[in-house]
Automatic annotation (TrEMBL):
Keywords: Acyltransferase, Transferase
Name by which UniProt lists this protein: Acetyl-CoA C-acyltransferase
GO cellular component: peroxisome
GO molecular function, one term: acetyl-CoA C-acyltransferase activity
Keyword Transferase: yes
Species annotation: Populus deltoides (Eastern poplar)
Length: 373
């Protein structure tokens, strides 16, 4: 009990230490070993998140954003970051956007267009990054690292995916050499089949997956009903076209449209496997294809205090760990312990693990986030 109490005090002290804490030495974080977190006494060099906004997450091809351009989606959240924090756009040192499915150069152009829509001057650079499902988190890590290194003081990390426009496609021309390397060949496996491989290798049953899906939708529905998403979602006024009549109308999207509050085991059990005849992954227990965007604003704690901005979170560590591509979905199981260890903590110090359930890079919900601040 005493250990748990002390741990809570240390972790809470990380979030809002306005002065040197008696719980923490001037240079070492008491939550970890002596090598972790060498910082100044006032912790002003902590990299913090001061704002986080997103669009709603909508079903691709039939949801609320099916007729919305990707650059418009990103433009809305970039503009929200500026307007809601009153940060001067010209002070932003870089915008890094995690994105997966669109061709790299084309998406980079679209993202730069979005920055101009949002009011950023041409002096603010932008680039995209692709680490598949964790691309949005990679963008956050890149911005945090650049601020820590002193390359700039303020940065925006974003995520964008528009699966209506950019679906999951196979490699157009495959090198015949791939047939001589099993793991190279496994890189071409559809995501659905890698899901089946994980289920088979680790004994995850159909009922396990269906129950996880039911629980996930119920939690999401409860969070939405209680207003937990209200402050983070930016209402987007856009157009939608009736596919039968071609009639266009203006709508405002402010809620995720993929949550199924009435999902239940009986209904899910009747669905056929989606990727393998005798498989266990179905349309009911797999993630939907989605359209959406999100962004976070990062800076040092000292600058956030100077600007009077709230500390929503502290970026403590990051880890990327490779795994067998045939079971790529186990990535978080390898990355989480590495990230926790890099923070000078242990797994049992963590109260909440939040792991992505979807392909793509839109944030949030996006990417692996281990929250221990």
């Amino acid at each position: 009990m005493e250990k748990a109490f002390n741990r809570q005090k240390v972790l809470l002290a990380h979030l809002q230490p306005t002065s040197p804490s008696p719980l923490l030495s001037a240079s070492i974080c008491a939550a970890g070993d002596s090598a972790a977190y060498h910082r100044t006494a006032a912790f002003g060099d902590d990299i913090v998140i001061v704002a986080a906004y997103r669009t709603a997450i909508c079903k691709a091809r039939r949801g609320g954003f099916k007729d919305t351009f990707p650059d418009d989606l990103l433009g809305f959240v970039l503009k929200a970051v500026v307007e809601k924090t009153n940060v001067n756009p010209s002070e932003v040192g870089d915008i890094v956007v995690g994105t997966v499915l669109a061709p790299g150069s084309e998406r980079a152009i679209e993202c730069r267009m979005a920055a101009f829509y949002a009011g950023f001057p041409d002096t603010v650079p932008l680039r995209t990054v692709n680490r598949q499902c964790s691309s949005g988190l990679q963008a956050v890590a890149d911005v945090a690292a650049s601020i820590k290194a002193g390359y700039y003081d303020i940065g925006i990390a974003a995520g964008l995916e528009c699966m209506t426009v950019n679906g999951i496609r196979s490699v157009p021309q495959v090198n015949p050499r791939v047939e001589t390397f099993q793991q190279a060949r496994d890189c071409l496996l559809p995501m659905g089949l890698t899901s089946e491989n994980v289920a088979q290798r680790y004994g995850v049953t159909r009922q396990d997956q269906d129950q996880a899906a039911v629980d996930s939708h119920r939690k999401a529905a409860a969070a939405r009903a209680s207003g937990k998403f209200k402050d983070e979602i930016i209402p987007v006024t856009t157009k939608i076209v009736d596919p039968e009549t071609g009639i266009q109308k203006v709508i405002t999207i402010s809620e995720d449209d993929g949550i199924r509050p009435n999902s239940n085991l009986a209904e899910l059990s009747r669905l056929k496997p989606a990727f393998k005849k005798d498989g266990s992954t179905t349309a009911g227990n797999a993630s939907q294809v989605s359209d959406g965007a999100g962004a976070v604003l990062l800076m040092k704690r000292s600058l956030a205090a100077q600007k009077g901005l709230p500390i929503l979170g502290v970026f403590r560590s990051f880890a990327a760990v490779g795994v067998d591509p045939a079971v790529m979905g186990v990535g978080p199981a390898a990355a989480i312990p590495a990230a926790v260890q890099a923070a000078g903590l242990e797994l049992n110090d963590i109260d909440l693990f939040e792991i992505n359930e979807v392909a793509g890079s839109t944030m949030p919900p996006e990417s692996l986030r281990v929250r221990f601040f």
